[in-house]
Each structure stands twice: as C-alpha cells, then as structure tokens.
Amino acid sequence: MVDSISFSFQDAFASERRKAKMLNFSIAYGKTPVGLSKDWKVTVTEARRTVDLWYNDRKEVLKWQKERKKEACESQRVHTLLGRARRFPKIDLANNYHKGHIERAAINTPVQGSAADVAMCAMLEISNNMKLKELGWKLLLQVHDEVILEGPTESAEVAKAIVVECMTKPFNGENFLRVGLSVDANCAQNWYAAK
C-alpha cells in the first residue's frame, strides 16, 4: 500500500506569507515599528530591524515616501497619476498625531488614488466600447480593481478578450505607464464562480 502526501508551500508557509503581505502593505502606507510590533506581537526592536531591512532593499520607496511627505507639507497637497489632488490645508497647524495621519495619507493617496484612476479609465473604455455594446454586454459593477460585466454566454470569450484589452490599455486605448497592466479574466455564471 502506498500513501500519498500532498504538500503545498502556500499552506506550509501561510503564516510567513501573511506576515510578508502585512509588512509590505503596512510599510507602504507608513506603519511605524511600534505599530508593526503590536501587529506581529514582537518587540519594537525586532520590528524596527525588520522595517530597516525592508527599506535597505527598497531605498527608492523610502525616497519616494519622503518626497510625498515633503510635497504635502510644502504645497499642502499630493496628486494621483491623473492629477487629482488631495489637500491638507491645516498641516502646518497639526499636532504630531495629526501630522502622522496626514503623512500616511500623503503616501497612500498617490498609490490608492492612482489605482482608482486606472480602474476608472478602464471602466470608461469598457462602457464606451461599441463592440461590447453590439454583443450585448454591460458593465455592472466595480469592486476595487475588478469589474463585472453581464452579457450573453455565446459571446463571453470574445467579450472577455475585449475587456482585457480595455483594462491593459485604459488610457484611450493606450498604456503610458512604464509598467504593464496584467489582467486575470474569467467567464462564469456568477461572481463567486469567477473567483
């Protein structure tokens, strides 16, 4: 008799993956070693060492974050990719607690706001696409970076290809970013099945 053993790195290192994901998002949005130590239940020294190691490998991130904080302080606003501004009119009057909140918002806004810019442009491309309309497809919903459309089953694969094209080239059929936009697309009877 032979027994089989199934091993998944994803399962075996689930805790480490969760910590890495938490670390990346936390630092990207300005979490301090004190906050990280509470989340991970480690000493502040251990958390600070982890944060320092993270930044040592990503010096450009630290530089960019400092630039956004400076921009928020000097011009009292930061901008998204498409130029939408988030204003901080009272930053010069803020106490340390509120200044920390504003600095985190100054880091978060260009990232999250620019992602929203891309999603919004992709949705406009999808909604204005004549071929999708001719095929009977309608944009129903957006959830973060996902869009959900509804249409006839017989044209689903054709519609999927058009949607992928719209999402990878969301700026009037172009992508002016220095990075590609990858898209995972599925056809299913409902959102749950598409996941």
UniProtKB/TrEMBL annotation:
It holds the Pfam family DNA_pol_A. One of its GO terms (biological process) is DNA-templated DNA replication. It comes from the Eukaryota. Gene3D superfamilies: 3.30.70.370, 5' to 3' exonuclease, C-terminal subdomain. The keyword Ribosomal protein does not apply. Keywords: DNA replication. InterPro entries: DNA-dir_DNA_pol_A_palm_dom, DNA/RNA_pol_sf, DNA_polymerase_A. Residues 3-155 form the DNA-directed DNA polymerase family A palm domain. GO terms for molecular function: DNA binding; DNA-directed DNA polymerase activity. PANTHER family: DNA POLYMERASE I (PTHR10133), DNA POLYMERASE NU (PTHR10133:SF27). This is DNA-directed DNA polymerase family A palm domain-containing protein.
